[in-house]
Amino acid sequence: MKLNAKKKVKIGLIGLGAIGAGTYVPILKNNEQVEVVGVCDTVKEKADQYAAELKTKAYYNYLDLFDRSGLEAVIIGVPHYDHTPISIEAFKRGLHVLCEKPIAVHVNDAKKMIAAYEEAKTKQPDLIFGLMFQERTLPFHKKIKDILDGGELGKLIRTTWINTKWFRSQLYYDSGDWRATWAGEGGGILTNQCPHNLDLYQWLFGLPSSVHGFAHIGKYHHIEVEDEVTAYFEHENGMVGHFIVTTAETPGTNRFEIVGEYGKLVYENEQLLFYRNRSSMLKFIQESETKFGKLESWYTEIPVQLNIPHNHPYVFEKFISAIHSGEQELVARGPEGINGVTLANAIMLSSFTKQTVELPLDADAYEVKLNELIQSSKYVKAKSDVQVTEDMSSSFSKA
């Protein structure tokens, strides 16, 4: 049920690792629209520390938080596998949920979360489920979306995204025994660093019809998951896509090319360039009276307004506003999260089987393979996994 706009939302935070403590605690501390009724972490010292900072109560089990705090909404900032059971329990209790990326490690878990949400909505239609895909709010990304939605490129031909600014040292992976393991994290660069990129890809272009992936396991690091990936996508409309990422390059590159019949967009180094064709390239191919002549094109740097609300605080504000209004005006609605997970799972399944994977994905086949990998994983989950709080700011917005 929608809340009075003047009433503070009673909210809890689960997970006080790098994201929870470094990102959400400052947001909650400075937001006058919420009342923090509890924070939760399995590490007692962390829960106690940040409960004191937020002047609230500490919990060490999320069920206790749900049972005793009187919360109406919850932020889920825990390791990926735990997104599913915690969110499902929250929906059963009619709680609004803002979940960190990715929605889940694999498609079947994402489906379970979405099903629980839809079931809860039959009793509480205004229930809100949001995802923290803050990269959708970044000015250059919003401008690219605006140009594509406006049709300036016409029929899309190709997109190539090289994003290798995700460098991680061996020390990074060694800083937690859960990191870069199948049992602890569920994957490597596609599961940890690139959920935002995969979400942006499907947000801009939709899901492809087929995927061929090449994932290298521990090519540059002593890890059991992928640290270098190249993927090839084919879309029903004829567009092809290339996706190239790694945690092993420095200096890295973030170059995003989008080619359409009326020209090419290039986003790199905080510049958005539009090489605009004077007429349709597809028409020119068929009607040109020369063998080698090229279309006249115009070089333009697209102006982008940078001082717009964006990033984590803006996504959070939209979440709280949606709770007050009862409307789904979110940066990213929960059910959309399955698309990026679908891409990640399809890339890995293709790489494991050395075959092109057609979408919709055979989610059972991927889950079977993942469970095999989990059985051989070096990571064994302990009751309390201590996580080091880190400054995550350098990890966001790889431009």
Automatic annotation (TrEMBL):
Domain Gfo/Idh/MocA-like oxidoreductase N-terminal intervals: 10-121
Lineage of the species this protein comes from: Bacteria, Bacillati, Bacillota, Bacilli, Bacillales
Name of protein: Gfo/Idh/MocA family oxidoreductase
Domain of life: Bacteria
Short name of any one Pfam family annotated for the protein: GFO_IDH_MocA
Domain GFO/IDH/MocA-like oxidoreductase positions: 142-265
InterPro entries xrefs: Gfo/Idh/MocA-like_OxRdtase_N (IPR000683), Gfo/Idh/MocA_Oxidoreductase (IPR052515), GFO_IDH_MocA-like_dom (IPR055170), NAD(P)-bd_dom_sf (IPR036291)
